[in-house]
Amino acid sequence: MTTLHRKLFRDLIHMRGQAFAIVLVIACGVASFVTMRAMYRSLLRSQADYYAQYRFPDIFAAVKRAPEGVAKRIREIPGVAEVKPRVVMDVMLDVPGLAEPAVGRLISIRPGERGGLNDLFLRRGRFMHQAAGSEVIASEAFAKANGLVPGNQIDAVINGRWQRLTIVGIALSPEYIYEIRGSGSLFPDNKRFGVLWISADALTAALNMKGAFNSIVVSLQPHASEAAVIAQMDRILERYGSLGAYGRSDQISHRFISDEIAQNRISATVIPAIFLAVAALLVHLSFSRLVNMQRSEIAVIKAFGYSNWQVGAHYVQFSVLIGMAGCLLGCVVGWYFGIRLAAIYAEFYRFPILVYRPELRIFLWAVLITGSAALAGAIAPVMRAVALPPAEAMRPEAPPRFRSRIIDRLRPGWISPGLRMTLRNLERQPWRALASAFAICCSVMIVVVVFGMFDALDRMMEIQFRDAQREDIVVTLNEVHSARTRLELARLPGVIRSEPFRIVPVRLSYEHRSKKTTLLGLLRGSEMRPMIDRNGKSNAIPRSGIMISATLADALHVRPGEKLRVEVLEGSRTVREVLVAATVDDLLGANAYMDLHALNRMMQEDHSISGALLQVDAAKQQELYQLLKRLPAVAAVSIKDAEVNSFKDTIDRSMGLSLGTLMIFACIIAMGMIYNGARIALSERGRELATLRVLGFTRNEITALLLGEQAIITIAALPFGFIAGYAICAVMVERMQTELYRMPLVVYPSSYAWAVLIVLIAAAVSGLLVSRRIAKLDIVSVLKARE
């Protein structure tokens, strides 16, 4: 070991507190990078492998009823590789142990057919027998949520007939990695919605669909044009009640998992950058102090023949050693958090195998990024050390040139001497104070963003489930019924109030742009489903014309007062020109709304409805649930309380770990910066503090004098952290706007209060550590003249 190496380790031991603070901040940045980047790669790889091995389709289409011969015509379209017609139907289920009615999506499969499109990964049990019409395979998420195993039975209403189904297997499908029902549902409710695969012969016989299908999936040849194939499929399927074919990008499960992958990629860039920027600041401040304190040592080293390059390498090694220690710790912590995060993802995204396996290049990137941050922080102090001539370095550093400043012009009685010294020191070293304030601002910003995201979600839930959805239950019928059905629903046990609605699939067109969506007809002045925007403001449904969501209006580039072409995608496929009467900035979906009577007139219907919104007496809910399970006309039942609980459970499990970890990291930034600043000040002002002790200042007074500087910086950084946090929240809310959901921009005062509390606790802990160093201050040693 060389002399410089021994000096390196002595300096490291002497600066162990500051070095440890820097290591922790670097570890936070590396851990977030490794966790998010490796999770991004793992999800991307798992998705690609699953899609390829189990043949996830490229195009999907639903029809009312089409003969199987139509599938042959689609197979002849140029670019089509494989076609799979099937029958899909949502039915009511009575699940053992579940009081509420559940919805099951029955999908037909050929028992002996394996390796085709949307092939199943059998987790447990077996495939059904060809002749066994009552045997089904249940999706894993549904079976796990309800404690179902092969051999259990569930009851279903299929085409108006009660049938008992036996579960013989538990499986996964690439079509339902994220298993939700759709139709406005954004979060999985695995207890009340599940996918059941049943023999094609049994399902077609039960639904009178022999020789026909109502759903078709298609895979494409390499380099085939998706848009061209969809256009030809729409022309072929139009006469069979097609709702329009769509590609993978609009398939709801694929869309959710792809959005999650994209967000992980962004998180793996932005969050580590904040931590490593703070780490570079800490390195810079610490090494600037080290070089100033070791001027004479640098002179001696050079006098003994060491070159400038060797001196520079010595200090670079110091910074790199600290950086690599932080990198190593961050890689270990990132690996651990990645495993925890993968377990959470496995609860929501159903892959046959989701292995968190960070690639070697991720760790290499972590080393490269950490080394760059350490060098960026150390480069300026190292250049100063190299530039010092031995003769100049042997002299003590010239005292800084002070001049009268604002604080010196204040009357002596206005502020105490201690506060005057603190403010004067801050005023004479503004750049160091700004650097410290920036780091603390970052920690405040992170806390505000964490709590701000929870605030936005809470407000979103409040607007959607309290203000916009005031019903208790939504009953959807299996086909369009007359208004008399509404009266029958209103007479069900426990129903206090009911309001009808009509749902119509439509294609809206304006100029050359078009969008497929649903047109929802509601009673004008509806009390159970008012039009509430993101700001909580109520909007009345127009008596005539159409109201569309702001997201849909932006996509079509249409404004109120202009006319839309409305093409109905069911029945006689009516086409009308309808005036856009208003827009509403709602939270979910890209929908269109009309007065129910106006919609019936446009459809040339006589008060037809698709279902009803019900307010229910809580004391009679169980009786109502049991009846709804057995009504042949009911296709689905949505329970608001179940949706709310599902929403909360999803948020708590999916965001709790990541946001909680960010809060811990924010505390580390605050503690690291405050502790480092106080330690540097203690080293630089040791003689000054010792002199004050000799002059009669108590230990508590000089501690307050030293930590007061950091307290002022912390308090000054708080409002800027609030502003930066709110700005980041605004950016995140804007970037998270999708057709599926929009989050309101809101940060409650409690979030700012939490930021203040967390930063103050971090500051208090740092102050306690520094005060212990002050208590051990050796006055005699500090006051000795430097050799």
UniProtKB/TrEMBL annotation:
The lineage of its organism: Bacteria, Pseudomonadati, Acidobacteriota, Terriglobia, Terriglobales. Keywords: Cell membrane, Membrane, Transmembrane, Transmembrane helix. The keyword Plastid does not apply. It is found in: Cell membrane. Its main location: membrane. One of its GO terms (biological process) is lipoprotein localization to outer membrane. GO terms for cellular component: plasma membrane protein complex. Belongs to the ABC-4 integral membrane protein family. LolC/E subfamily. InterPro entries: ABC3_permease_C, Lipoprotein-release_system, MacB_PCD. This is Putative ABC transport system permease protein. Residues 270-390, 662-778 form the ABC3 transporter permease C-terminal domain. Residues 20-235 form the MacB-like periplasmic core domain. The chain crosses the membrane at residues 20-40, 266-287, 315-339, 360-380, 433-457, 655-675, 711-733, 745-770. It comes from Acidipila rosea. It is a multi-pass membrane protein.
